[in-house]
Amino acid sequence: MKIAAISNDRCLTVQLKGELDHHSAKGLMSRLEQEIEIALPLKMILDFKDVTFMDSSGIAVVIRMRQRMRELGGCLVLQKVNAQPRKVFEAAGISRLVEIE
Amino acid sequence: MKRAENYVTLEFLSRSSNESFARIAASGFAAQLDPTLDELGDIKTAVSEAVTNAIVHAYPEKLGKVVMKMKILDNNELEISVRDWGCGIENIEQAREPLFTTGGGERSGMGFTIMESFMDRLYIKSVPGKGTMVTMRKRIAMRLNGKR
Questions:
Q1: Would the pTM of this model clear 0.95, i.e. be above it?
Q2: Which of B139, B114, B123, B140 is closest to A22 using CA atoms?
């Protein structure tokens, strides 16, 4: 999975590209945590536009990032979530924890 | 036992790189039932969960054998089973509960919940120390004016 991060005015936007499964989740989680360490953002936006597949491994990633952002007193927003990952988030009730634009 | 109109058996090692292989194989096999994109997404997601369970939980410290069988039953029904010879599940009822996981912070505990809600039926057979077999079924609706 590829990522592209842009930080601006303590808002960190990360574009995710590819398939998010157990195989890719571990590397993704540590790279996202690194980006948070560098930017120390108050808002993190995860852009799912180019996520072509996601299973429950993505739920664990989002819950971890939400926790990291809360520790910093910030928030996490998910945007441009395609139908397939959206259905996985809905099955887990993630919209009650994280804003999905 | 329902008669299979067509079937495929795949055997692979419990490497995480085989998760995407299993999904692609499942969607390729299911294609002959002419599923919608949504149905195909459901099948890929459920297969990903079942295969990941075998890779993460059945063989936590080693590599082992995973066998995935896919069948087309009459009535346009797809059956997929994923079997391993790993450590087995002590308490299946507990494992099926949403958010229950033995996988720590890297797993969400939603695998069985997703298999259950994305497919029509889910059967789990497991013997601690012997292995686990997960069988899922989903009926693919016939298109009204589609040819087969």
A1: no
A2: B114
